[in-house]
Design a protein that fits this description.
alpha+beta; Jelly Rolls; 5 domains; eight-stranded parallel beta barrel; six-stranded antiparallel β-sheet; 17% helix; globular
Length: 827
């Protein structure tokens, strides 16, 4: 028999080489990211894989691609992947390898931010809590214990990507990788150790030989060849520390996150587009939206403290994955316009011409081919301008806007002129399947803790996060106090000095009160109590609401009653310090330990039918069943009526709820002036309402038929007010200028069923209150109906010719449309 073994090895080597050698190259200079020899400007968007689900990923990625993005950016979340030291989890919605592969299949690139510190309003900044308890460790500094762990995890992630051929040098989608994160913002308090640490980070990252460039954001002293980048609302004035590096905007904040007690932040589409256009006008090469899809802080992943479960971020794709219009399409049109000049932007020379203090014409030109591409910006926050460019024409540039001029003589886009639809979503009660939910309840088992029985003891008041190691939000502190005379029982006050975030107090098994700090800060709890002769049991339940995720030495900020002090204050201000008493401790709720939220284990508990006495109870578990709503619209729970706690569907945590926490009733406005520099206090909404009333239930959490919802209520609520709803697109509006195309679109299989208003002329008002102006084309509605009725989407040429006015010019006309989307009954 002929031995072919000598042929096998070269064949394997050849196949291996084919797989690796087909890999592309990624390089750069000051004007471009160069991918496989092609000079590019890159539009990227942040989509964090754990803030959505596997089932949502393809749709989110496709909408990012449809929005003319080139890349998807995400952190790698250390705490989720290594919840216990050397015990890893990359399953389900933590399978970042699959996420990257889906991105590549869609034809997009990946920007991987390993960190592994992420900030991201994520619990403890993305660090696993076991790090906190390692002997001798100091996080994010020149500490060998920490550096060993950081390098081990970073190397593991890199090796996983290499094994899956995910780096661009291997033919994969990863074109950039980040090490550390926003360290330059906090480096000063770390002193020389901080500088040594950041140099070590760079050397360690480079030693991993990934074949693509490493970046560091907000790190002005990033060691070469690491590229330093900018984060913020505006980065046009940023310059990299090496003139040969590209100018990169790794976090363009499209909105802002929200905390319990906060109003809804809003950043206009006009201002985001202005920020992007100004960045590319000033020589920018890479822009990443933070966030493009914010998503949901499922489980206990929200940080802060006091970050809400929703991480919507007012992003182009909302928490549920719906297009946030007009922001999504306005930015899409911006990307299309800038990409028309990509070759000139990345190959040409740039020059500026000033017209007064606020107007700048930036010209990119390539003399070799005689091409030009221009940005004309007006940074005045209040005054519009008309600029005469002589042979290149006159241009009206609204205040705080940028016009993009192809050939420097044709306006492609202006950041303040929105020619995109506005979508208004409605929440629909799921009455057909879930008209009336039937609830049962069970008390949180507390006999042991109310009697002062824990699982371990200490003669001091322990710090909470180091004690719970993130097993639970809850830690019980219990002690006994002996009283021998009736005189010492009068007018006694319990004073607890706690570092938050929430405290519930019991004395001799009786509830005496609850309290929480402002924004998760330290507070003093004081309540009068009744003592008896003999042994008195004091039981304190401390609850965290997301661990601090940002600042220098943030990891050392204590939580819980750490050190107290705790006093009993009697008549004559006689004070007894209980801080050094023998304290008994228990981590977590008995209901958590018994997994009352898991349908498999909840059957072991005796549940009672809900009645008036069981409504408004503290420390209570509630359970109900509901049917999966038909269709594909996103599902949400309206939790109004509940107090504070956590929710699970079929054993999957959908996060913390706190609808009883009401936002302030000031500073809201029905309108938002996009002009002028943005900050999170500008253009806020939702005054006087719950900070978060609705909670996302991913359809992948649901069965084909019946589901179980579990609620743990801390402070008292009425589950009978909880409603299962779907989120559907309702009204859509468009207001487009003459010479543009108005695209209208319903989502989720819905169609345009009615044109409620249409006027080509000079219509007035806004979505929901349009009215005809001094002139319009009388059959505007008929023309729009002919194009759009029964269509999922339609495009309308906004021109005099399309509306029967021939070749009339200088009309200064626009088209306003309001339409209704309804379910397609043919589906």
């Amino acid at each position: 028999m002929v031995n072919f073994q000598w042929l096998v090895l070269p064949l394997v080597v050849t196949l291996s080489c084919f797989s690796f050698c087909k890999g592309g190259s990624v390089s750069y200079d000051s004007n471009a990211i160069i991918i496989n020899g092609e000079r590019r400007v890159i539009f990227s968007g942040s989509i964090h894989y754990p803030r959505s689900t596997e089932a949502m990923w393809p749709n989110l990625i496709q909408k990012a691609k449809d929005g003319e993005l080139d890349a998807i950016e995400t952190y790698i979340f250390w705490d989720r992947h290594e919840p216990q030291r050397r015990k890893y989890d990359f399953s389900g919605h933590l399978n970042f390898i699959k996420f990257f592969q889906l991105v590549q299949e869609a034809g997009l690139y990946v920007v991987m931010r390993i960190g592994p510190y992420v900030c991201g309003e994520w619990n403890y900044g993305g660090f696993p809590l076991w790090l906190h308890n390692m002997p001798g460790i100091q996080l994010r500094t020149d500490n060998q214990v920490y550096k060993n762990e950081m390098q081990t995890f970073t190397t593991k992630i890199v090796n996983m990507c290499k094994q899956a051929n995910l780096f661009a040098s291997q033919g994969g989608p990863i074109i950039l990788a980040q090490i550390e994160n926003e360290y330059g913002n906090v480096i000063t308090p770390y002193g020389n150790a901080g500088k040594t640490y950041i140099n070590w980070c760079a050397q360690m990252a480079e030693s991993l030989n990934i074949g693509v460039t490493w970046i560091m954001c907000q790190q002005s002293d990033a060691p070469q060849p690491i590229i330093n980048t900018c984060n913020g609302f505006y980065c046009d004035n940023f310059s990299p520390n090496n003139p040969k590096s590209p100018k990169m905007f790794t976090e363009n904040w499209v909105g802002w996150f929200k905390k319990w007690g906060d109003k809804d932040p809003y950043r206009s589409a006009e201002d985001v587009a202005f920020s992007v256009a100004r960045f590319f006008q000033s020589g920018g090469v890479f822009n990443n939206y933070y966030m493009y899809h914010g998503g949901t802080n499922f489980g206990r992943t929200s940080g802060g403290p006091f970050i809400t479960t929703s991480y919507d971020y007012n992003a182009p794709l909302d928490e549920y994955g719906n297009m946030n219009q007009p922001k999504w399409r306005h930015l899409k049109q911006l990307h299309e316009s800038i990409k028309m000049g990509e070759k000139i932007l990345t190959n040409g020379t740039r020059s500026d011409q000033k017209f007064g203090s606020f107007i700048t014409l930036t010209k990119f030109s390539n003399p070799t081919v005689g091409e030009r591409f221009c940005f004309l910006s007006n940074t005045d926050a209040s005054n519009d301008a008309t600029i005469d460019l002589q042979a290149d024409g006159k241009y009206f540039v609204p205040a705080w806007s940028v016009s993009i001029l192809n050939g420097c003589n044709k306006e492609l886009f202006n950041t303040a002129k929105i020619n995109s639809q506005t979508s208004m979503f409605v929440k629909v009660q799921n009455e057909k399947e879930n008209a009336q939910l039937s609830w049962v309840w069970a008390p949180e088992p507390m006999r042991d803790t109310l009697q002062g029985k824990g699982t371990f003891n200490a003669n001091l008041l322990l710090e909470q996060k180091g004690t719970t190691v993130d097993f639970s939000d809850y830690l019980w502190y219990m002690t006994n106090v002996e009283t021998n005379s009736t005189s010492s029982l009068q007018n006694v006050t319990l004073q607890v000095n706690t570092k938050g975030h929430v405290l519930h107090a019991f004395v001799n098994r009786r509830y005496i009160g609850s309290q929480w700090g402002s924004n998760g800060q330290s507070f003093v709890f004081e309540k009068p109590i009744l003592l008896k002769v003999g042994t008195n049991t004091i039981t304190l339940l401390s609850a965290t609401v997301g661990l601090k995720n940002y600042d220098a030495f943030y990891d050392t900020v204590p939580t819980g009653i750490d050190g107290g002090p705790i006093y009993l204050i009697g008549d004559g201000n006689v004070t007894t310090d209980l801080s050094s008493n023998l304290w008994s401790y228990k981590v977590g709720l008995n209901g958590e330990i018994k997994q009352l939220y898991n349908p498999m284990f909840s059957q072991r508990t005796k549940w009672s039918t809900l009645n008036k006495k069981s409504i408004g109870r503290r420390m209570t578990w509630y359970k109900t069943s509901f049917k999966t709503p038909s269709g594909i619209d996103p599902v949400t729970f309206d939790m109004q009526g509940m107090g504070k706690g956590q929710a699970w569907v079929n054993g999957q945590s959908i996060g913390r709820f706190w609808p009883s926490f009401i936002a302030g009733n000031d500073s809201c406005s029905a309108t938002c002036d996009y002009r002028g520099a943005y900050d999170p206090s500008k253009c806020v909404g939702n005054c006087g309402n719950p900070s978060q009333r609705w909670y996302h239930v991913s359809r992948s959490f649901l069965s084909n038929d019946t589901n179980t919802l579990f609620l743990f209520e801390e402070i008292g609520g009425n589950p009978q007010q909880v409603i299962v709803q779907t989120i559907t697109i309702g009204t859509i509006c468009g207001n487009a200028n003459d010479g543009s195309t108005l695209e209208l679109s319903c989502q989720g299989g819905h169609i345009i069923s009615e044109i409620q208003f249409a006027s080509y002329g000079n219509p007035e008002g806004k979505c929901g209150s349009f009215k005809k102006g001094s002139w319009d084309v009388s059959n505007s509605a008929l023309l729009v109906e002919k194009t759009c009725i029964r269509m999922e989407n339609c495009s309308i040429d906004v021109s005099a010719k399309s509306f029967g006015l021939g070749n009339a010019t200088n009309l200064s006309a626009r088209l306003a449309v309001q339409a209704l989307c309804s379910k397609n009954r043919m589906m």
